[in-house]
TrEMBL record, chain A:
Residues 381-401 are annotated as: Disordered. The gene is ODR4. One of its GO terms (biological process) is intracellular protein localization. Keywords: Membrane, Transmembrane, Transmembrane helix. Belongs to the ODR-4 family. The keyword 4Fe-4S does not apply. This is Protein odr-4 homolog. It is found in: Membrane. The keyword Transmembrane helix applies.
From TrEMBL, chain B:
Keywords: Hydrolase, Protease, Thiol protease, Ubl conjugation pathway. Residues 39-262 form the UFSP2 second domain. Residues 283-467 form the UFSP1/2/DUB catalytic domain. GO terms for cellular component: endoplasmic reticulum; nucleus. The keyword Cytoplasm does not apply. This is Ufm1-specific protease 2. InterPro entries: UFSP1/2_DUB_cat, UFSP2-like_2nd. It comes from the Eukaryota. Gene3D superfamilies: 3.90.70.130. The keyword Hydrolase applies. PANTHER family: UFM1-SPECIFIC PROTEASE 2. Belongs to the peptidase C78 family.
Length: 431, 475
């Protein structure tokens, strides 16, 4: 049995528009939510142009570029939305494009799931979309691939347009405080070491979140309960969640560890997840919200580390034996997608950036035209400089706020290249 | 904290458990600095317990309580029907116990004579991490400075006993007081047993004291064995006015809550499920404390026909272990035989054989392995046992240990006597090690493998030796 994708009307118009442009094949990603037997595609966004090859007849698809774009896009999606697949618009035969599509679908999935801190669940849908649109006939041929099996065959899938797909989707959200204190190993206080430390600490915290108790609108409901039961069908609903955590009961070594320093992560995040309107259950809401909680923290930490790695390392490893620095992580800014019900996408705004940078990125990554006044900046306040209420800290040497590189296609390439370098650095260091 | 337990009105016990994370940075290894930091960290934990983010969730139910929230009823608990004025016993209706219900009905018949015990409501200690927003976003602080990082989790475990009129509001207030008190006790124990930068995790344990003194919670340092905590126990005995010749506060004496089953597969105190006889002017004199039932074919050891005395000895050893007199696990047949070789009572070839043992050997093994002395009572013929009522009654009053009796070709365990001083009538509560079946309480009591026997149970002409183990005078 093939999968059936229910697609927002606006996606048809978007894909058509790109058929008209007719300058070589166009790639992009499809965004939506998978559930049970039905899948919903909410929006699509084309891969941005690479500056060096602008205008050139890019007949060979740049796999790395497409996957890097997909990764950036997935960071901008709140809970309940994910990259569901890849599309290619070209005048070639759909059969010829299948190999490229298959490569892209698997590459995108592998890159996005690599940094995930939460474990895959048994009821996760592992089918992804491989869509080809013929630029001459505008005909869309949709197939699905099971990304658990690299040898799986592409199965034909239904691709059906519908209006108002997400007009009545429900929203679950919360504001959650994070308070992590991690030890840095002795003699290794570099950024790479901090990165590993943070990754391990966040992984443990992600387990706590996964095991935590979730209340919806103040109630602890059985997992199978329908969230929207007893409500009118065409009413858009919002729910507030509360999360109760308990520390990992496992006792670590009772002796003290010798450390070279510490890293703490404190503050709050706004988390949200969208749920399709086809009788969603409480356990789905809980799963999607918890995943968003973990992702949004992990993404911001990654962004901060990416920034730090692009700056000169020398500043960090000063000759001083004791020093401290405080860094602000970017705050989450939401942007409604016009005509898509309650659904918003998001971006992260560093403290030295203005909203113009945010709208620029929304345009470049998600092909979204948004004005500054459309943005919802009320969910998170700017990070506060902390007063040392924690353990005694030596005099603060530098209060650093990383400068965000203004995003252009080139900058993204630099980031991608440097990430590759950083990754190889991690391998070279003996940990 | 002392918890009154009145056996006529069992009430409800509320037990809250949960880990609290203990984290601190030690910038120097100087003792006084360490003490200051540890105390400060405990102070931080006490503030956390008093914060509005503290939550009690009731296990197996949708009930959640925020005990530090003001008494505005809508914010205090979920579901909304629960308010600070709800009675504790009314919480039971929210708790899902489908499996427990059906199995307890099965045992209800056999345990019908058991003293009614309080029911237990288990709660989890958790922290709410969500708050109404918006709030300031994340900051990351990095410091580079050599230090020691100490991290562990404290296993909080507090108990309060409530009567039928107590409300949740009152019970939760008392639980909070208990939590704060427990943190203070943990701080004391941590500082006392700290070695350099190594922290012994303070572990709370509950003990049920006799004579309606109720449940008492004591904090012990986890890594320190009982043998090193005698001073602590002495202080406790004095505080609670307990005799100083028998243990009440060894780790083995820890109270087992009704829902905590033994996982080793042995039955405990099957005699409690037996209907006791009533003799004219007669009284019951029974074994005190807890023992396990050991019998033929257990532990995949086929000792059918020769191992009865060994099994009786195992039952006795299990008694000493569970009363806290020894940490040594119940010995195997081989270990028993080896002990006899070690004291010179048997040749080396004895080990691995199927030779019988008698009361004298039982006495020798108890002495060798557990340092327990025993009295031997000799009876020249079985019919004389009927006249030993007073001695046996006295034994169960003062020592209360199970008695091994060997004679004829059989060995048994005597768990008590029913004896009338005026009429001289006597019955013996027998635990029979010759049973070869599975640990089925119904079968064991119905078929008399654990049950009351009359004087005609004994071979009237054979001679018998009884081994009466004596409690060591220790705490």
């Amino acid at each position: 049995m093939g999968r059936g994708y229910i697609v927002e009307d606006s996606v048809e118009g978007y894909l058509s528009k790109m058929c008209e442009a007719g300058a070589g094949p166009v790639t992009g990603v499809l965004i939506g939510q998978s559930s049970g037997q039905r899948d919903f595609v909410v929006t699509a966004t084309r891969t941005p142009q690479r500056e060096e090859s602008a205008g050139a007849a890019g007949s060979s698809l740049d796999k790395e570029w497409v996957t890097e774009h997909a990764r950036q896009v997935s960071r901008m999606l709140p809970g309940g939305l994910s990259v569901l697949g890849v599309f290619i618009i070209s005048d070639a035969d759909p059969k010829d494009m299948l190999i490229s599509l298959r490569q892209l679908v698997f590459a995108v999935e592998n890159l996005i799931s690599k940094d995930r801190l939460w474990a895959a669940a048994d009821d996760d849908i592992t089918d992804r979309i491989a869509l080809h649109v013929n630029s001459k006939t505008r005909k869309a041929v949709c197939r699905s691939l099971d990304v658990r099996d690299p040898k799986s065959t592409a199965k034909p899938a239904d691709w059906r347009y519908q209006s108002g797909v997400c007009s009545c989707w429900a929203t679950v959200s919360c504001c959650l405080e994070v308070d992590l204190l991690l030890a840095l190993p002795e003699n290794r206080t570099s950024i790479e070491s901090m990165e590993k430390c943070l990754k391990d600490g966040l992984k443990a915290w992600a387990h706590q979140v996964e095991d935590g108790v979730c209340l919806i609108d103040g109630k602890k409901l059985p997992a199978d309960t329908e969230l929207t039961a007893g409500q009118k069908r065409n009413v858009r609903q919002t729910f507030t969640a509360q999360l109760l955590l308990t520390p990992d009961g496992q006792r670590l070594a009772d002796g003290a560890q010798q450390c070279g320093g510490s890293v703490s992560l404190r503050g709050a995040i706004h988390s949200r997840a969208y749920l399709h309107s086809n009788k969603p259950k409480v356990n789905l809401a809980e799963k999607l919200l918890k995943r968003d909680v973990v992702s949004t923290v992990a993404v911001r930490v990654q962004m901060l580390l990416e920034e730090l790695l692009t700056e000169e390392e020398g500043k960090g490893n000063s000759k001083e034996k004791h020093w401290a620095e405080q860094l602000s992580l970017p705050r989450r800014v939401l942007c409604p997608v016009k005509g898509h019900g309650p659904v918003c996408v998001c971006d992260y705004q560093f403290s030295d950036e203005g909203l113009a940078e945010v709208t620029d990125r929304l345009k470049e990554m998600l092909d979204l035209d948004a004005a500054e006044q459309d943005l919802d900046t009320r969910q998170e306040l700017a990070a506060e400089p902390a007063d040392s209420s924690g353990p005694t800290e030596p005099s603060v040497e530098t209060v650093q706020e990383p400068k965000r590189n203004t995003y252009t296609g080139v900058a993204m390439a630099t980031a991608a290249a440097l990430l590759a370098t950083a990754a190889s650095l991690l391998y070279l260091q003996d940990d | 904290m002392i918890v009154q337990s009145d056996s006529s009105e069992p009430g409800t016990i509320l037990r809250v458990r949960g880990p609290l994370e203990f984290k601190c940075q030690l910038d120097s290894t100087v003792g006084s600095h360490i003490q200051k930091v540890i105390s400060r960290t405990f102070e931080t934990l006490r503030s956390r317990v008093k914060s509005e983010s503290l939550v009690f969730t009731v296990c197996d139910s949708p009930v959640v309580v925020w005990p530090n929230r003001g008494k505005q009823e809508t914010l205090y608990a979920s579901p909304e029907e629960i308010t600070p004025n709800t009675l504790c016993k009314d919480l039971q209706q929210w708790i899902k116990t489908d499996e427990q219900e059906s199995s307890s009905k099965k045992n209800a018949k056999s345990k019908s004579k058991k003293i009614p015990t309080a029911s237990v409501i288990n709660l989890h200690l958790m922290m709410e991490v969500t708050k109404p927003g918006p709030l300031p976003a994340l900051t990351l602080n990095r410091t580079v400075q050599k230090h020691h990082f100490l991290r562990t989790t404290l296993p909080m475990d507090c108990v309060v006993h409530t009567t039928c009129n107590d409300t949740i509001g009152v019970a939760c207030e008392r639980l909070l007081e208990e939590l704060l008190h427990q943190l203070c006790e943990m701080e004391k124990v941590s500082l006392q047993h700290m070695k350099g930068t190594t922290l012994q995790v303070p572990e709370p344990l509950h003990f049920l004291l006799p004579e309606s003194k109720g449940l008492v919670t004591v904090v012990y340092p986890a890594g320190v064995p009982d043998s090193q905590l005698e001073a602590h126990r002495k202080e406790l005995h004095q505080r609670f006015e307990l005799p100083e010749d028998r243990p009440y506060f060894r780790r083995a004496n820890v109270y087992r809550f009704p829902n905590e089953t033994y996982r080793d597969g042995y039955l405990r105190n099957p005699h409690l499920a037996v209907t006791h006889p009533s003799l004219e002017n007669g009284k019951l004199y029974l074994v005190q404390g807890i023992y396990s039932y050991h019998h033929y074919m257990q532990d995949r050891m086929d000792d059918n026909g020769w191992g009865c005395a060994y099994r009786s000895l195992q039952t006795i050893c299990s008694w000493f272990q569970q009363q806290g007199y020894t940490e040594r696990p119940v010995p195997t047949h081989k270990e028993i035989q080896q002990a006899l070789v070690d004291v010179g009572d048997k040749q080396g070839s004895f080990v691995g054989s199927r030779q019988w043992i008698g009361s004298i050997e039982v006495q020798a093994v108890l002495n060798q392995l557990l340092s327990v002395t025993s009295k031997i009572m000799f009876v020249s013929q079985g019919s004389e046992l009927a006249s030993k009522g007073r001695e046996l009654a006295n034994h169960f009053i003062t020592e209360g240990t199970p008695v091994m009796i060997g004679g004829g070709v059989l060995a048994h365990t005597i768990l008590g006597v029913a004896w009338s001083e005026t009429t001289g009538q006597i019955r013996y509560l027998i635990l029979d090690p010759h049973y070869t079946g599975s640990e089925d309480l119904q079968v064991i009591t119905d078929k008399g493998w654990c049950g009351w026997k009359g004087p005609d149970f004994w071979d009237q002409t054979a001679y018998y030796n009884l081994c009466l183990p004596q409690r060591p005078k220790t705490i």
